[in-house]
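Researcher: Structure for this, please.
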Amino acid sequence: MATSLARRTGHGLTYAVLGWAVAYGGVRLAWAVGETPEFRQFGSDLLVFTGWRSVALCLAAAVVAVALDRVPTWRPVLAGAAWAVTGALVAAAAILLPELVGFLLFTVGPHFDPTAFASRLGCVTGAALLGLATARYQRRTRGDCPQCCRTVRPGHRRAAPARWARWAAYVAVAGLGTRFAAQGMVGGLAQNAAVIGLEVGLLLAGGLLPLALVHRWGEVWPGWVPLLAGRTIPRLLLLVPGFGLGAGIVAYFGMGLVQLVSGSASEFSDTFLWVAMSAYWVLGLGLVVASGDYHLRTRGACAACGR
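Model: Predicted structure, C-alpha cell format:
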C-alpha cells in the first residue's frame, strides 16, 4: 500500500514537471524563435539562462524528471543532476528575491515589469516541482522504506542540533554582521524608511532566524511570549523562511558574484561589493544548512516504518 501510494505521488510530480516544461518551455521557445519582450528594468527576465539556454534548461528539467520516475534504484549521479537543474532554475530567477521584498515593503518601483515577474515566478515554479520530484525519488530509493528513506532505528531521534548546524547558524549571523560593517564603512546606515524596514527584516532573518533553528526556543515558545509560552512552534514557521530566504539569497548574490567577476559596472567599489555580496552569500548558505538540520531533527515519525 505504502509503495503504491509513493509511486502514484511520484508519477503525479513527473506529470507536473512535464506539464510545466511544455507550458513554460513553450513560452521560452516562442520568445527564442520570435521576438522577445522588452524588459525595462534589467533588460531580461532571467539571468544567464536566456534565449535558447532557457529552452534547454526546461528540456533538461523534463528529461531529468522522467529519469527520476523510471530509475528504480538509488543513483547519486542522477540525484545530483536533478538538484543541479533545480538550482539552475532558482539561479535564473534570482531577481525574484528583491521583487518579493519590494512587495513586502510596499516599495515596488515604477519600472516593475509584470511580464518579467510572471516569467520568474514560472521559472521558480518549475524549480519547486523538480525539487519535490527529486526529494520523492530519494525517499523512494534510499533506505528500505519507500516513504522516508531513513536508516536510523525506529524510535531513535536526535534532540540536539548537530555541531555543523550550530556552526552554520553562527556563520550566518557573522555574515550578516560583516554586511552591516561593510555598509557602515562606506557611508553608514540608510535613512530611507523603506530601506530601514529592509534592514530590520535582515536583522530578523539573518540574526534571529539562524539562532532559532539551532536553539530550543526555536521549537517551543519561550516563557516571555504572551499566550504562546510553552507551546510547540509550528516547524513550517521556521522552515519556510529558512529554506526560502536561504535559497533565494544564495541564488541572488551568487549570481551577483558571477556578474562581478565579469566586470559589471556599479556605483560602489569592487572591494565593497565583494565583501557585501560574499557576506550575503554566506548568510544564505548558513540558513539553508541550519534549516536542513532543523528539518531532520523536528520531523515526525514515518507512518510506514516508525522511524
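Researcher: Any notable elements?
Model: Confidence is low (pLDDT under 50) at residues 1-6. The chain is about 65% helix and 0% strand.
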